[in-house]
């Protein structure tokens, strides 16, 4: 993918050019966010199924995302990132149509559930295509030297959409039922497709296409570091409410808000440090800060101390994905960077998927401190791995 300045950019500021592309990520993840809080109650209360099937419907999306990462990355390299993003937006729109159909079929629970599972599969594929496509599209618009900024802004769009989408979904469902979630998703994706179609494409980079297994092997050390660091994020997102309840504390929701504000704030204010100091250095410092935050959570004896720990985790984890991602994609040629980004993203999918059951097993006795200790140790291991990678590969470029 060629990365010289695009003539169509019209002299717009760099950040605005990035936002014009990652706004499609925001709209796609808004569709995901709309379903977060309302889908399990629909499966459980309206269709009459138990918690296991409700959980299966949720996890189907994540499985589809994981399995379609390779397709998304290779499509971005061969057909172009704009087309990849458009495919993803279409898939998310199809999910909306299927959700509306599932809602209308609620009188036939088995059929409604089957349609909903297909909808979640479409959403998972859409997520991987939009995420990979928009990042590579943005990089193609503004240049490889701004890779970290594009990844950072894409992350802001992702988590911002999820934060807005969940409460908005609850409000919509209260006003018009679950069918409104599907119809709103279709409207959002039609809007996104119209806007995305008008944006300029970038040229596909010619060159050898490495087999996906070779790409995976080159980014695996960085993906492993990402996965180890992501465990801390996973245990906070999954278990902080239960942790607070076990200690008799109130304030789990504000603590999650503090984590999110710190996470997004660092992305917005300090994303430039990756280009200035190098991905290895930023990742190393970030992981050590996250490790400290997890340790504080493990030993906290007061809610204010725990909140400080969550804030440190948000600050620390914020730049781990973009900083390691920048150096990961540099391990392959430009014609394989979409595949590299997709392969790298698989590691956080797997890490977050395993964190729930493993964290629950560690905390099965109702003691959550050891779980945070393990997460801190894994963040420290990631920092050590990052340091080793820096010594091996990064000294010449920082």
TrEMBL record:
Span of domain Major facilitator superfamily (MFS) profile: 177-398
Listed PROSITE patterns: MFS
Localization per Swiss-Prot or TrEMBL: Cell inner membrane; Cell membrane
Segments traversing the membrane: 21-43, 49-72, 84-108, 114-139, 151-172, 178-198, 219-245, 251-270, 282-300, 306-329, 341-362, 368-393
Cellular component terms (Gene Ontology): plasma membrane
MF (Gene Ontology): transmembrane transporter activity
A family per Pfam: MFS_1
InterPro entries listed in its UniProt record: MFS, MFS_dom, MFS_trans_sf, MFS_Transporters, MFS_YhhS-like
Keywords: Cell inner membrane, Cell membrane, Membrane, Transmembrane, Transmembrane helix, Transport
Membrane topology: Multi-pass membrane protein
Family named by the database record: Belongs to the major facilitator superfamily. YhhS family.
Protein name in UniProt: Uncharacterized MFS-type transporter DVT68_07025
Organism: Dyella solisilvae
